[in-house]
## 1
Amino acid sequence: MPERVLTPAHLYRPRVHYAPAINWMNDPNGLVYAAGQYQMSYQYNPYGDTHGHMHWGRATSPDLVHWTEQEIALWQGDHEIFSGSAFIDHANTSGFGKSGETVLVACYTGHTPYNQSQFLAYSLDGGEQWHPQPEAVLDVGRQDFRDPRVFWHSPSSQWIMAVVHPYEHQIELYGSPNLRDWQSLSLFGPAGATGGIWEVPELFPVEDEQGQTWWVLKVDLNPGGPFGGSGVQYWLGDFDGRCFDARTPARWVDHGKDFYAALTWSDLPEPSRRVWLAWMNNWQYAQAVPTPGQRGMMSLARELRVARWGEAFCLAQSPIPELQKLRGKEEEIRRPGFVVLNPACAAELKLTFTSTMSGALRLTFHSDEGPEGTVVLNSQMLRVIRPTTAPTTDLAGYAGEHSAELPPGPEVLDLHLFLDACSLEVFASEGRVVISDLLYPNAPIRKLEVDFEDADILQAQLWTLTPSGPTGRLA
Ligand code: FRU
């Protein structure tokens, strides 16, 4: 009898994460809530499974969980369509609106081998059809100058654009009354990690638990990330309509290897809510991951807040509550041992425990071929270990251990984890520490081994997660 082999398309196709049906995807772009839907564009190559010929692909969702792939939003013309943002021009400052329709505007980088400049496109039908404008609105004659993040800043009554000079490790802020005329306001950087080029800046306000507003400045880095390849850093601080003033040192947003180019949604119905997602990949190996035909997936959407870290503050991320809709069968875990997982579904695990200084919780994911990945949590550290086995033996930078220190103090440790067909997202300390990693098992993961030494589980719940609608269109 011939050996039965699962093709990567079946083995690794995400069950609850967004991935386009075929071909290459990288950064999320143009995230905006409009026409009653969450809109998501992304860097997309409709001609192949590696980076090139950048277009903006597009998907929509009623709930940030179930995504439907749509037609391409922005096509490559005499330049490629690199990363950028989208937002509603409520007051029609751009003049693109004709007769009172909602004016959706996208601002993105037009890329040629010689120049990167910022362009606009608009849509008057909720993102179905986009009208790219032929002339750049910001061209400073640079080869590398990209990834505009534009938002309306009410206190200074102007549009703000954060845009990056990758090799100078600088984010330049511009202001504009009408999205067409831009004036430089300030430069931030070099600062923090500068071991690679800077990409995809993001600047947005978030509240802490006392209701105080902080501004977050985020920038991606490639290479120079915490465990090799790309990474993402942020500062908390103030923004006065001209300058961002950092009040914390730079910190990593994610301590795994696969969370890049995160972008937040514009114009969410709840104005104080901040939600982002990222490309779950790393430029070190993104073009060689073992899913030929389709490469690139998004992380789950996460809600942001500023939380205490001892005496200091940090950015914390939690999976959005809407994900609870995916929960199917629930199981309580009471003692160490093996729990059966259904590889046709994703899995969510939520767990709290107390432990001594030397105690630890160890979770190991097994396929029929053996252990495929491990998560360890003790009172000081969170660790994720990716083994050195096929099919990723030759994927440079894949195998290894990714770890992060936890904040000091709490008696009760918490862990919230999502496992999908080729990914693991682990949130500890109520989202203060996150590790997001791709995980390519040799065969479907069928068992979770739960092991705890000198630790008492207080509560542990495991859910199978099944989408009740499309999360991408399968070819
Ligand atoms: C980040 C990035 C951006 C650029 C886009 C090109 O991953 O390199 O800086 O706009 O991807 O696809």
## 2
Amino acid sequence: MKCVPLHKGLKLYAPAKINLTLEILYRRADGYHQLQTVMQELAYSDLLYLEECPAGRLELICDDPFLPSSEENLALRAASLIQQHYAPHRGAHLALYKKIPVAAGLGGGSSDAATVLKGLNDLWQLNLAPASLQELAARLGSDVPFFLCGGTALAQGRGEIIHPLPPFPRAFVLLVSPPGTELSTPLVYRSLKWDKIKSGEKTANFVQLLRDGTGKSSGDPDLLARLLELMVNDLEAGAFALVRELSPLKKMLQEMGLKPLLSGSGPTFFAISNDHEKLRAAGDELTSRGYRVILTSTK
Ligand code: C5P
């Protein structure tokens, strides 16, 4: 269904994320994996309009015909959850314009859900405490709580325990994925068959460097390069086992002089640089080879 922009109510941006580090510490008894991950908001967003709807009705329209408009859609599940708990007689109309690729490791669905929670808290004037919103967000998915605060943050637990960090240096970000490829997060975790116990040392070092580096009043010109050296994603092996194009794509990006890393469970790679021209030229080349490319920046 084609969306028609709404003119009353709220207009909100639901940003994408990348994982600058993602380390699995161990597999938990509840089937989840204990994580340490540094998440970073990007200046690339879905667009969401919220408007009051009478008689407790919740409706969603979405411009992506492949996304369900039913309760399977995480944005509508978020609306339903906050309504059930805090506003049983209120209704809302949601219009969602998707820009973030779906099931790409960029957190689009989780960001939409968090934005709906924040937006309905405002639209319905619920004045919920941040802890109440966090609790609802964690029930919707491990990545959802991050998007309540955004910026740069360390996520622990299964990803739902958030510690805001000093901002990562402003830089350009190239996002690249094989066309028409989506990856299911549970499948990636399952294909990894994790049996190690790790301490999350790289993430701890990354966080320390970010805290030390951004604390210096003069600023550290090498900070970005030093942070990029510490990036890691333990989910890469699982994603590479499921999508055979990923390993050669990473190699191709490295041969172009980039430092690619998979975001979340993939299949999107990101490369960060201060050099806009270098990323633009690589992006043009990859587009001509048929890859899906987005050039954006950290937020
Ligand atoms: O929390 P969320 O619903 O986004 O997680 C989707 C699936 O990803 C989980 O059911 C689980 O299989 C896997 N997962 C995991 N460990 C995490 C986060 C997600 O195993 N920390």
## 3
Amino acid sequence: MLSRGGDSGNKNILGSFPQQFENTLAGRDIISCRDFNREDVELVFRVAEEIESGVAGVEDALRGKKVALIFAEPSTRTFQSFYVAAKSLGADVISIHDPSISSMAKGETLYDTVKMIEGYGVDCIVLRHPARGSAKFVAESTSIPVINAGSGSQEHPTQALLDTFTIKKKLGRVDNFSMGMLGDLRFSRTIPSLCYLLSKHDGVRIFFMAPELLQVRREVELHLSQRGVVFRKVVKSEEIREIMPELDVLYVTRIQKERFPDLTEYEKVKGSYIVDMKLLSYGKKELGVMHPLPRVDELSPEVDSLPNAWYFEQARNGLPIRKALLYLILGGVA
Ligand code: NCD
């Protein structure tokens, strides 16, 4: 049982909240945002807020635990923030960050890699892999909790948690607001996860702003329809400008060049949208601009100095969210 440092007993880190919460995430896999209910999300946010506000003793909360980071795709923010999160809670970390210098490059299967790592007494696996279904496959291959840090173009649930946490902090709510999603909605994995998470909230309106070739996938549309979420596809640039004044938040994604099965298709849409001062001039004065990063050329650096630029703070929010997740999954008292 985890406790506040210096305390003798079992005080939980949420002790300052009037209501006590059951830790519904203890021992759980985080594979898809479809698996969360609203209470799970609120629990993660409360623990993240509590950790951010500097609760004493959390730095020892995972002492004696081991976290494995297996990243078979490039990553800066997700890898580093999971690494820092685990270390700052006192856990040991083992990692494969460059598959080209691990036995994966010799043809070792994902299953064998996971079995090896499990054998070293690891308590939790954080996995990024180019294949859809990879996180679920690994979760079914091991008895320890698995966190999906990106499964091909399919999902990126911890990114959606930090995105939603950012919206809550900046807007003061996650219900009743309008969001534009602009860019590669077809291959971006942050988009489905964010849509699934927003669908647990009330009164969210989504505008999918992208050329037809980059429009949101059918599986996401179906999910939103089933959950009664109001959404609309916006394809033409003139229409995008017309929608801008309605938005509270604009979420931008880069074109996922590496996921195009045919590069001639990529050439057709390359450079087809850019978020700059001109586009923002059509929006509300306080419109928030988000981006999971990295950006390429779709988000002009001229936006960086505006109060509308939420994306660096968004990236920073990855740390408290990932600390909270590791804390709860590895058995923190909530
Ligand atoms: C995203 C990803 O890996 O899906 N990056 C991230 O985790 N912040 C977005 C992207 O690569 O475009």
